[in-house]
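Exercise 3.2. Students should predict the tertiary structure of the chain below and write it as structure tokens, then compare their answer with the key that follows.

Predict this chain's 3D structure.
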Amino acid sequence: MKHNRTHYPNYTIGGFNMKQVFTLCLGMLLAMFTLCAEAGAAKVATKVVEETLEIAAKRSGRVLSKSAEKKLGLELLEIAGKHGDDVMVLVREGGLEVLEQGAKHGDDFWRMCKACPNASRALALHADDLIPLAKRIGPEVLQIESRTPGMATRIASEFGDDAVKVLAKQNPQDTTRLLGYATKADTPETAQLLYKTYSQSSNPTGFLERLNWKQIMAGGLSASMIVAAGGAATGMYQAGDGLQEGLRNPEVAMHVSDALTQPTKFGLSGIFVIILGVLGFFAFLLCRKAVKQ
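Answer key:
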């Protein structure tokens, strides 16, 4: 037995039959639900933007006027639409300067911030220096900045670009101490010797602990201190470099001259003992022969 389709009474309202009226009402209800959902989502988005800007303003130590907050809110929504909703987190972590630097440096800035969110504050404050440095060296720059803002540029300036990659894997406290000692070095060569000895040491932290920090802070860092703390044991101090340093530093000259002459001293002493032994043996034979006669 076949079922008949839904039967609409043959009534009309304003020239529309019941089927048309029902379809129109259903469409209006759907439109109302959609508008309500969009309004709710817009309200939530507005709330998130307001909270984000409030947190960012506190981090930056600023107070936003209503007009400035509205303007930044529109900018933030535009940026979120282009780079994703996670920019809200970056702005909260980095402060209002994130928006300023993002507008200045564009996609490079947002890409680096998203790659290392913990470095967003450092990037916000030092983007002009860090973006070129990160492009030149690599992500290690951001890894260091995420732990200690401002440290990567100091490392590159003091020890060179390669040191950034090496020290990114080391204890941040070691890096801070290393840079502190380097600023007390008596010459740039001494600072480089400090870094090379540290980076090639089997126990870098132990090497730094063997340095007398009180003496360094009071009178500066010399190459002889580095050698005494472990530089000579790592084979870092080559004879030629040591003699050149010895011309400037008598203490180093003493270490180098001892290292160079010690094998010779032992070698000459051994030869002298052998010669005396041979002469003594022949003297013994001559005396024995004389007694028998």
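Discussion points: Residues 33-44, 232-248, 250-257 have pLDDT under 50 and may be disordered. The longest helix spans residues 18-60.
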